[in-house]
Write a structure and sequence with these properties.
264 residues, single chain, mainly alpha
């Protein structure tokens, strides 16, 4: 990868990733883990809307209705949140929008240069840039609070174990998709969301109302339908492409088998 490609393509993605991590992690200070996981179900809708704006996705009324259903489910879950915090919710939404722009930017910037990145090589290229950008808010916003606070216990083991788990997660995602498929990854992700909501509610004693569960279940069904529709769309496109290639090969074979005419 050349220096110009790294600066023009990788650095903007690293900047957006830093915003995602900073604002997304800051939201945990104000909101419960279970509620944050419920709101993250809105991610497909945000990515679709950003994709339409950047003309990566084609606007479709049926798909937009599905996205609105997801948004409605998340709105119901937010309405049922007992310990709702507007500032924390704003941070979370800013993180989701930044993540959507980052995903679309990867599709626009990297595919235009025919750069192939998996989860491991993405970490290799993006992590240094992300670390550099995250240093700014840490030095000016978080470090002064850490130095002035007396009750903050910085445990290096916790930080190291957290980083190790995060790296292992990215590697496991890469291996899972490589050994199975993206569909398996989507199904496993849905199961992971439910487990995370349940465990966080038990460990952190975060109450979950019936309204929240009803709203998240509605968003969950809409997300599952969206994933199913995308898979069906890919299969149709793949089938049409294979059929076109077979027809092209058949016509070429027929031309080659035609006997040449005798010259008079």
């Amino acid at each position: 990868m050349t220096r110009d490609t790294y600066i023009n393509k990788i650095v903007p993605i690293g900047f957006l990733f830093a915003i995602v991590l900073w604002m997304g992690n800051s939201a945990y200070v104000y909101l419960s883990v279970a509620f944050i996981q419920m709101v993250k179900a809105l991610m497909p809708a945000v990515v679709y809307c950003v994709g339409v704006v950047f003309k990566v996705e084609v606007f479709n009324r049926k798909t937009m209705a599905n996205m609105l259903t997801i948004a409605l489910g998340v709105a119901i879950a937010s309405f049922g949140e007992i310990n709702f915090n507007a500032f924390g919710f704003s941070l979370l939404m800013a993180s989701l929008v930044s993540e959507a722009v980052r995903v679309v930017s990867i599709q626009l910037l990297l595919t235009s240069c025919d750069i192939k990145l998996n989860s491991v090589t993405t970490l290799y290229y993006v992590s240094p840039v992300c670390f550099a950008f995250l240093t700014v808010p840490f030095v000016f916003l978080e470090l002064p609070k850490l130095l002035s606070a007396d009750d903050v216990n910085v445990n290096p083991f916790i930080f190291l174990s957290n980083a190790t788990l995060a790296f292992a997660l990215n590697v496991s995602i890469y291996l899972l998709i490589g050994k199975t498929s993206a569909l398996t990854m989507n199904v496993a992700g849905v199961i992971k969301d439910w487990i995370l909501i349940f465990i966080s509610s038990v460990l952190f004693d975060a109450p979950i109302s019936g309204v929240q569960l009803a709203g998240y279940f509605l968003a969950f069904l809409a997300v599952m339908y969206y994933n199913y529709a995308k898979i069906q769309e890919r299969e149709q496109m793949s089938g049409a492409l294979n059929s076109s290639n077979m027809n092209s090969s058949t016509s070429k074979g027929g031309e080659e088998m035609q006997p040449k005419g005798n010259n008079a």
